[in-house]
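Q: I'm building a small set of examples for a reading group on sequence design. Run inverse folding on the following structure and report the sequence directly after it, with nothing in between.
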């Protein structure tokens, strides 16, 4: 999983155990990719390799890249027959170009988005396709707003201003792709409210797993208070029938070089 500006240390085991919904939803995106035997496909931000393995089951040759050594180590352990490499979404390079580049739930971590788009363009064959899904405009906005409010109330306005994620509108992102030379053939921005795995600590776990960079330099005891406040602030909007939900908004794009 890629992050261009602020580094997040990923716990690959926690990611697989409690946040498996991230890649389970991605199976749907593999159907959109329609991988075929003989194709060469890049899984950009492959995490622990689950979707890479689904793509490989089609008979395509797949390479998974991620900038987290921990994720790649686990991916190699789980799928020893597949090729995985530690590489950054903004600087990756392969001698042999790809028929398709696939990326699920990753590009919202890449704030240097023009560099990533350029890299994708350069590593695709002519007529190759991009199949991308990631957080779009107002993604997890309720969680982010509650977290930033709580950080500011505790005197951590600088932490609240950390530019951790990039959630563009559909027109902004397709505009960037077109500027680099892609033809966008499909684009959608849609709600995907997502049930979180832990019924007691759903929001707290989510913020701990994905938003830990916001807590840089803050004492553990204060972090616990903030997490409690954030979850409490979301009871009316993100909790019902005994379950916690994240207000995900996805951007899905297909584009051709
Ligand atoms: C997402 O999949 O939308 C997401 C995951 C982690 C942090 C931010 C967004």
């Amino acid at each position: 999983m890629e992050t261009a500006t602020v580094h997040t240390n990923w716990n690959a085991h926690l990611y697989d155990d409690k946040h498996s919904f991230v890649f389970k939803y991605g199976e749907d995106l593999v159907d959109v990719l329609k991988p075929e035997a003989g194709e060469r496909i890049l899984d950009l931000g492959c995490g622990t390799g689950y979707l890479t393995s689904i793509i490989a089951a089609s008979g395509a040759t797949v390479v998974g890249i991620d900038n987290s050594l921990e994720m790649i180590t686990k991916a190699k352990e789980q799928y020893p027959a597949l090729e995985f490499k530690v590489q950054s979404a903004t600087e990756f390079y392969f001698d042999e170009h790809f028929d398709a580049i696939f990326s699920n739930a990753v590009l919202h971590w890449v704030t240097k988005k023009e560099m990533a788009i350029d890299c994708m363009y350069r590593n695709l064959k002519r007529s190759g396709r991009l199949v991308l899904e990631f957080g779009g405009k107002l993604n997890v906005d309720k969680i982010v707003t509650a977290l930033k409010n709580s950080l500011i109330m505790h005197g951590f306005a600088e932490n609240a201003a950390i530019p951790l994620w990039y959630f563009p509108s559909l027109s902004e992102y397709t505009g960037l792709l077109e500027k680099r030379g892609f033809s966008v053939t499909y684009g959608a921005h849609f709600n995907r409210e997502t049930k979180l795995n832990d019924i007691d600590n759903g929001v707290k776990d989510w913020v701990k797993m994905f938003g830990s960079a916001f807590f840089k330099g803050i004492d553990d005891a204060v972090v616990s208070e903030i997490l409690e406040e954030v979850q409490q602030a979301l009871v009316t909007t993100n909790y019902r029938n005994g379950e916690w939900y994240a207000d995900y908004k996805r951007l899905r794009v297909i584009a051709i070089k």
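Residues 140 and 161 are 16 Å apart (CA to CA).
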